[in-house]
Amino acid sequence: MVHGTPGYRGTRVGVAQGSEARNHSDHGQGDQLPRIRVPYWCSKGHETRLVFLKLPDEQIPQTWDCPKCGMPASRDPGRPAAPRTDEELYKSHLDYVKERRSSQDAEAVLAGALERLRARGVLSDQLLEDA
Prior knowledge:
Layout: E1 35-42, E2 47-53, E3 63-65, E4 72-74, H1 93-100, H2 103-120, H3 125-129
Antiparallel strand pairs: 1-2, 1-4, 3-4
């Protein structure tokens, strides 16, 4: 069964002005805060439209990472954001892991994890023979 309320207390930012913290947002109190939709374009032409609270223009980010390609996107379609330098390029989770661990460390962690799975009976040696 799916429970009708989220599993955390409070409300999302901008749900209702003057409302008390509740565990669901359908309490019917407060007025909706004004919102605006802001478009961003990357150098590859991808358009991303984000919704923000209606804030002063200087509080809305001028650039945003494109969710499709990871390149920086700007609010001006005719002037894409400057590409990142080599130090700022997108890193995957694996890249961060490789920065923290050497190949030997990774082998030791993997061996330990496999040993714990075998001890619990979750992993048999027959499953590893095909790999």
